[in-house]
Amino acid sequence: MNRTLYTALFYLGLPLVAIRLWLRSRKAPAYAKRIGERFSIGLPPLQSGGIWVHAVSVGESIAAAPMIRALLARYPGLPITVTCMTPTGSERIQALFANEPRIQHCYLPYDLPCAAARFLERAQPRLAVIMETELWPNHIDQCARRGIPVALANARLSERSAKGYGRFAGLTAPMLAQMSLFAVQTEAEAERFRQLGARPETVEVTGSIKFDLSIDPLLLARATQLREQWQAMERPVWIAASTHEGEDAVVLEAHRLLLSQYPNALLILVPRHPERFNSVYELCLQQGFATVRRSADEPVLATTSVLLGDTMGELLFLYALADSAFVGGSLVPNGGHNLLEPAALAKPVISGPHLFNFLEIAAMLREAGALQEVDDAQGLAVAVQRLFELPQDARKMADAGLKVLKANQGALQRLLDGLDRLLKH
Q1: 299: CATH
Q2: Strand 371-373 vs strand 349-351: parallel, antiparallel, or unpaired?
């Protein structure tokens, strides 16, 4: 398949795209809004001549935030256009940069030549930075036609994804050859990009910027203050974060097992997607757990068994409230989520076995003794109970995680240096 055929198929598939948007809007009504932006129609006013950063959804937006803040500091005269594809990503971007007038935001238009061209004519960026592995052939081609360098930041490429791209070499190889920088997390991934057609001189192993996570000391102070308000300083508290469909029931079963030994245990349950907040709340009630919603700002009482984390932008704070952390997306084959966030907050980390999105990070934490993997509710309950009962072991796990984090920092600086070269070229 070449780009011409890909584009023709994309045009033919637009009715399916519309149906998908409609189906998603039934669960998340925000998908029915701002549809014009997805075709570069009705875009908000955009200052031109700056840097365009694309982060597909919430996780990438959070990962991109330190880089964006560093770019704002390095280039005080440049506006930064941040795009995403999802309403939750849009909410996160707007919340992260609400007080920064140089940040402008819209959805990334679909990967159609006309839509991509209209977007670039409006934004006229000097540099395009794409987070992780969100590669769109027509957007990249339109940048190349205008002489706009394109960088892939914090780039990831699993063996499975590389095989998928390899099946469409006629589309993939020319696209990768048009790009100017691949700031890749590991050497194995760097080699996959080269094999697929990236020019060797454009591929650099910079590491993962997710290690360059800094925690505001006020966050920890606020968490301690809230636990004091709950009168829960001595109470065992654990968090199950970024859970997906199929995991919540397992987590609640583990919590039920824990309650048989620790009747005052508190679970902070944080579903990954906002459209699931209501259904997970109903599940908690159906299973008989005394549950309060964080969004309702209700007090957590001695009788409260579950706090549902149904707010946006508070995940680090909710991690800070807990004694130990289970990271979701890993008991189901979703590939896991960022294990480094609880590690950065000095929390012992537990996950399921499905960690293919974070293989290297998981291996580092596992080898250091900072990660425990479980398979089911029984295993999860045992792991959490052990950390409740053996605080010295919990402290050793937490310290090991922090050590891994600090030993691998520096990727952000290496990435920024690479972007600086492209801007000065």
Answers
A1: 3.40.50.2000
A2: parallel
CA dihedral 237, 243, 247, 249 (to 10 degrees): 50
373 is catalytic: no
The answer to whether residues 410 and 207 touch, using CB atoms and an 8 Å cutoff, is yes
Q: Evaluate whether 31 touches 61 at the Cβ level (below 8 Å).
A: no
Nearest to 7 by CA among 156, 154, 125, 170: 170
**Helix or strand or coil: residue 420?**
helix
Residue-range definition of the domain harbouring residue 168 = 28-212+409-424
* Cα–Cα distance for residue pair 224/309, rounded to 1 Å: 17
Residues 353 and 350: their CA atoms lie apart, in Å, by 10
Tell me: do 201 and 272 sit in the same domain.
Answer: no
Residue 209, number of CB atoms within 10 A of its CB = 26
The tens digit of pLDDT for each residue in 197-220 reads: 999 999 999 999 999 988 999 999
Secondary structure of residue 121 in the 3-state scheme: helix
Q: Quote the pTM value.
A: 0.85
Residues 148, 128 contacting (CB under 8 angstroms): yes
State the catalytic residue, choosing from 60, 189, 247, 341.
60
CB 349 within 8 A of CB 370: yes
Identify the pLDDT of residue 1: 87
Tell me which residues of the chain have a pLDDT lower than 70: none
Residue 133 pLDDT: 84
pLDDT of residue 387: 98
- Through-space distance between the first and last CA atoms of the chain, rounded to whole angstroms: 33
